[in-house]
Each structure stands twice: as structure tokens, then as C-alpha cells.
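Researcher: Following up on the earlier apo prediction. This time include the ligand. It's flavin-adenine dinucleotide, with the SMILES given after the sequence.
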Amino acid sequence: MKAQTAIIILVIAIIIGVGIRKYPSYLPSYVTNILEITRLKNRFSSTQTTFDYDLIIVGSGLAGLTSAFEANKLFNGQKKILVLEKMPKFGGNSAKATSGINMLDTPLQAKEGVKDSFDLFYKDTMKSGKNLSQPKLVSTVVNDSHYLFDFFTKEIGSDISKLGLLGGHSVPRTHRPTKATIGYHLVDTVHKKIKDIKSIKIIYNATVCELLTNEKKTKITGIKYYLNENSKNVLTLSTKGVILASGGFGHDFDSEDSLLKEFVPDKMKFPTTNGKQTQGIGVKIARKIGIGLTDMTQVQIHPTGFVNLNDRYQKNKILAPELLRGVGGILINQKGQRFCNELGTRDYVSQKIIENCEMAKSNTITQYESFMLINQKAIDVYGGKVDFYIQKGYLRKYENFKVFAEKMNISKYYDNLIQTLKEYNESADNKKDKFGKKVFPQKFDLNDYIYAGIITPSIHYCMGGVTMNSNAQLIKTDGKVMNGLFGAGEVTGGVHGGNRLGGNSLMECGVYGRRAARSAVEYINTFDS
Ligand SMILES: Cc1cc2nc3c(=O)[nH]c(=O)nc-3n(C[C@H](O)[C@H](O)[C@H](O)COP(=O)(O)OP(=O)(O)OC[C@H]3O[C@@H](n4cnc5c(N)ncnc54)[C@H](O)[C@@H]3O)c2cc1C
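Model: Understood. Below is the ligand-bound prediction.
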């Protein structure tokens, strides 16, 4: 009955062409979405002197959704916010995140007796970023990360109840939910908070293709976008402010103005863990209006793109969670040897794989392959949830190491493999090995069954992006702020320098998503005074 009423109202609204702005609250969101698009389509033929929206947010990943929530809160729901999302659903790459989100000095850390500090976290981040990261951006994100725990658990209602240690961190500070995966859980809970708020509209399948400024290029005046069903019909919206939260360019292989081709041509044949929407449009449109770019050549290669054993040379890889190594997974090459500290930083482990492992025999893809071995004890600590990887062909269970070696065509090096495992067990007893590993979560029983998969270094994250200051204002190539333009998340550069620490990206989305909202609200409120 409800659906019928909704359809009748929709038809009437379209027929009379009314630009309904305050939709009845009982209408489902897909109906108000269509009504809003209709209203906007109708509006473009008329002239308009007032602003269409107070704030437009480009992208609905964690950075975009967080900034929408925060801005609406600070506006007391009194201003019009529009989120434009190119895909049919919210989430972007944020929804893919599985390892966790870093936060400083949380109740969870206190409960588990973890002694963390601003200095330690700051140093870990700078060290991982090879001192390329901008100190002010890092100190801000580390400091503000402390407030994210209350923000997500109390204001948003997210479940953040587990703590883990990722590579490159001195202490456990990576938080995640008990049951769900972190990235989807965060975007889903933020989305649930905002989806019924009438002052926030989200339009899907809408690609922002241009940022508009005044003649002097000192301030933002609007945006252009198109609905994907008709990309030739470019629509214009005026606005007081824009938050760019459009993510990175880790899947920008094929576009004419490919950023990967321009900045890291040597990575063009690598696989990627990023979704196909990750094409850097935000970076490109900001660059066109004179916004500076920072660290664009810094593209992170993640060591553990998971190779699907049923479809080995797929360009798109899912990620083998870092935690699998955190709970005791080890890496070996085709000669049955370990070659690195599995808990080292991503760039270190990736480099070691490239130096020590064979490349797959395919002309279409640059795929250096390492075996990842993990035993049942480690899987139990992980949480026993590896069924998905087994069902989909990423992990296989072998009755012993001999069978594994045979199936993977490395029988010739079986003795090496056994020697490697014996040495590993000795290192575990001594709590150190020749690669500098000090934490050995599990030893291996040489007669037991074993799980194994293949992992390969894959494009994972763009440290570079548009130039931003610690108030999330975007900076032009002349060093001046572009008034009314803010950025948050992977679209921005400068936080992670030469290598991002695991868990620091979701943290950045939360911290700078909120900061961008605060700066935007402050700026937009000046229009009223
Ligand atoms: C497999 C995987 C696992 C990860 N795991 C972790 C982890 O555990 N912890 C961690 O901290 N980080 C992790 N990351 C990194 C992290 O998830 C992302 O870097 C981060 O979430 C990016 O968030 P964002 O909001 O900036 O961008 P995204 O989440 O990518 O969202 C950007 C959105 O903008 C939209 N968009 C793009 N261009 C336009 C346009 N022109 N118009 C309209 N919309 C547009 C996109 O469609 C997308 O929905 C992982 C990344 C991947 C790929």
C-alpha cells in the first residue's frame, strides 16, 4: 500500500513538474532520490540567483559521508547539503577495508594495557612515510584520531571492540568491529545516520566533472555533473562550498588522461585492489582550476593482493588481510625459502617479494608471486573466518607440506621448505630471526595440515593527491587557499608521504572528513553575516 501511494505521488510530481524540496518523510529514499533528480533537471532550464546548495560533497566513501554527517550537525540541520556519488551505491574503496582504523589512547587500548603515545604514533607514521609526510598534517591526524573513538561509537553507533597490531606499528592501535568488516561497517553506520535526514540529499550515479570558480579563481561557485545514464547532458549547480572526497586513482589505467600513466608508468601492468570507480576524477578537476598536487608519484603497492587460484591473472585482486600475517601467516618463495620479516611495512614486504619471488608467466600482468602459509592455530586466532577465501579459490587446505609442494610445483625444493620451517620454529623460540622479526605468533607443526594461497604486490593506495592544509582547505599552485574548496580522504596528498601505514587511511577519512566539514561550515556561515 505504501509503495502504491509513493508511486502515485511520484507520477503527480513529475507530471506537474513541481520542484518539491521538502519531501514527505514517509516516502522511501529511492523515491525522494528520483524526485530530487527530476527537480534538478527541471531547474536547469530556469535562471536562478540563489545557491542551489550550501554545501556539495563529491563522493560517498568514509570521508564524504563523515563530512556530510558532521557538517549537518554543525549547521543544526539548517542548510542544504548534497552528496553526489558516481556509483549506484555509497562506500567507495572505504567499504573494502578489512584491517581496521587506527586511533590513539582509546578505552580499548587502556583495557588491554597498551601503552601508546602521541610521540610513538607520530614517529611510526613519519618513519613509514619515509619522512616525506607533512609534519603538520601528520600531527593533526594523530592527535585528532583520539576523538574518533567517541565519534564513531557514541555519535554514529559503530561497533569498535577489537584491537590488533599491523605491520609498522610499535603497539596495537588498529581497531575493528567484532563481527563485521571495518570499512563497510563504518560507511554503513554513518550512512544509516544520515539517510533519512532531509537537509542531506544523496544522488547516486552522478559524476562530478568540473569545479566552477569566480573569474579570478579565488573561490568556488559551483560544480558541473552528469547523471551516468546520460553523460552528454551536463548539469550545473551553484554552491557556497565543496568538499572533495572522491578517493584516489588506483584504478586509473585506461582513461585518456590516466594519472597512473602520467606519474607511475612503471606500475601500469600491476594488478590493483581498488574498485573500478577509483579513477582520480577529483584530482583531475581540482588540478584544472589550479589546485596543487602533492606526492603524486607515491603509489603504494600492497604486498598481499590475493591471487585467485581459479582465475590467476585477473587485474582486480581482493586483499589478503594483513591480519593473516599478523596472526602467524608466513611468506615463502618458489625455492621454499622465507625472504622477509612478514610484519614489516608494506613497501618493504612488497620490495622483498619483487626481489625474491618469481613473476607469473603472463604478458598481460606484472605479477610477482609469493606463497602464504598459515596453520590452523593462526586461523583460530584470526577468528576462524577464512571459509570465504577457501570457497572462492584464494586459499587451499593441503594435508601436509609435501602435498602443498607437489601441488604448487615446488617439490624440487621440498627439503628447503622443511629446513625453512625448522629454522622458523627455532627463531620463534629465540624471539628473533635474520630478517629482524621479533613477534612469532605461531610455530609450525611439520606433520600437520596447512592452508596456503598465493599473494602478489598490487596497487593499493595513492599517497599523493590534491594539496591540503591541516584545516582541510585545498591549496592552489600559487600557495593560496581556494576559498570554499575543501578535501578529505584519499583524494588529498601529504599525510602518508612515501608509504601509508595500515589503518591510517580510514583514520584520515574520519579526522579530515570532520575537519573539512568544520572548515566548510565556518566558511559557509560567513555568507549569512
Ligand atoms: C581492499 C582495500 C582494503 C583496505 N583496507 C584498509 C584498512 O583496513 N584500513 C585503512 O585505514 N584503509 C584501508 N584501505 C584504504 C581505505 O579504504 C581507502 O583509502 C579510504 O577508505 C578512502 O576513502 P575515501 O572516502 O577517501 O574514498 P573512497 O572510499 O574510495 O570513496 C570515494 C567515492 O567517491 C566517488 N567518486 C569518485 N569520483 C567521483 C566523481 N567525479 N563524482 C562523484 N563521485 C565520485 C567514488 O565512486 C567513491 O564512492 C583499503 C583499501 C582497499 C582498496
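Model: The first helix runs from residue 2 to 16.
Researcher: Noted. I'll compare it with the apo version next.
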